Amino acid sequence: MESAAILQSITSGLGSTMGSLALIIVFGAMLGRLLEESGAAYQITNKLVVLFGLRKIQIAIMITGFLVGLPMIYNAGFLVLIPLIYALAASTRLPLIYIGLPMCAALSVTHGFLPPHPAPTSIAFIFHANPNLTLLYGIMVAIPSIIVAGPLLSRFYTKWTLTPPKDLYVAREFSKSELPSLSASLITALSPILLMLAGAVILMKMPPENVNVKMLKFISDPTIALFISVFMGIYLLGVRQKRKMTELMKSLSDSTSSVAMILLIIASGGAFKQVLMDSGTADYIKQIAGGFSMSPLVLTWSIAALIRFSIGSATVSCITAAGLTLPLIEGTGVSPELMVIATGAGSLMFSHFNDTGFWMFKEYFNATIKQTFAVWTVMETVIGIIGLLGVLILSKLI
Q1: For the whole prediction, is pTM greater than 0.85?
Q2: In this structure, are residues 326 and 124 in contact, taking their beta carbons and an 8 Å threshold?
Q3: Where are the alpha helices (DSSP H) in 258-377?
Q4: Buried b (16+ CB within 10 A) or exposed e, 146-167
């Protein structure tokens, strides 16, 4: 390619990627900050533990991680929930890994499989997949993945005596008067997901030319669903809790700066994808892969897994693998929504030293390097494998 053409591809890839994703990521960060600072995440967790009791505490933690993980990126959700994990482990005298692993599994699965998270949303646009259907299918695959990698896997580590590190994290205490109601917390956390799922289900059942269907299609779009949810959160978790508007605006402004690097990573991934397309590399890969007998679902999973092992970033792994395998699905009849989930599952494989999640787990669970490999790396790999198996089963049914 000529230098001018390369520059044109880069700017084109940056623009198209950010045009479709920037608002989704920014609104998601705002919603996550509202849930964190208002105590809504704390409220949801406590109520679930009371509801399920001590014997089913892992189910409560798993559901909490799933609900908190839907609108929040992994790192943010982890930092919100880890002090609650410490408190629960201390009060119940259950092993820290036994309490914490279901939370980590739920956060990781939602981050890797489900829109409106940055990676699955961005590759949904690359594969021209319906984000709402991707969410619906993703939840079907996510549930068994979380159960196997969380409650079931944690039983192998019940004799480990890990303890929270001293002075690493100071948990914020909320008084009852500070906490929003459970209904307000759940409505805010779940509203974007419910809107997107409603859009997916109704669009499958009703004719698209119906006026009501057109309106629901508009409000169930990930950007609009998150936009609505942020306004609901500002009122339910902010104004109604008597927080000052200047304080709320400062908090939301700060939340957008926290995703600046994520935006740049995704934009650069989009630029790289466009260069691959415009240079003819994608067509060349298509010719080579055309002789493979491997399913496109397995191929995109494998490529994402190899890139993840090499560079550590799940988001970059997703976008790069999607750009490479996009030409392979033309004429194959494979579901683009399942391609998104398969790519996301591959991007969670083989986490090690080059992944920030690896180090977060090590430090906050006060584990050794060997223990982190034995727990965190194994958990992420189990999620990736179960995710692929779930996608392959769904591909036979859809």
Answers
A1: no
A2: no
A3: 260-278, 281-289, 296-311, 314-325, 336-346, 356-364, 369-372
A4: bbbbbbbbbeebeebebebeee
Per residue in 324-377, pLDDT (tens digit) is 888 777 767 889 999 999 999 999 999 888 787 888 888 888 889 999 999 999
Contact between residue 42 and residue 179 where contact means Cβ atoms under 8 Å apart: yes
> Which residues contact residue 97 at a Cβ distance below 8 angstroms, ignoring those fewer than 6 apart?
154, 157, 158, 160, 162, 365, 375
Please report, as a single letter, which amino acid is at residue 26: V
Q: In the chain, where does DSSP find H-type helix? A: 3-38, 40-52, 57-69, 74-92, 96-113, 118-126, 131-147, 153-154, 182-205, 211-219, 222-233, 245-257, 260-278, 281-289, 296-311, 314-325, 336-346, 356-364, 369-372, 378-397
For the purposes of burial, counting CB atoms within 10 Å of the CB of 253, is it exposed (0-12), middle (13-18) or buried (19 or more)?
Answer: exposed
Closest CA to 341 of 135, 192, 198: 135
CA–CA separation, 312 and 295 (whole Å):
25
Could you tell me the two tokens for 347?
């991007």
Domain ranges within the chain, ordered by starting residue: 3-397
For 208, counting Cβ atoms within 10 Å of its Cβ (0-12 exposed, 13-18 middle, 19+ buried), the class is exposed
DSSP 3-state assignment of 309? helix
Note if the bond before 116 is cis, omega within 30 degrees.
yes
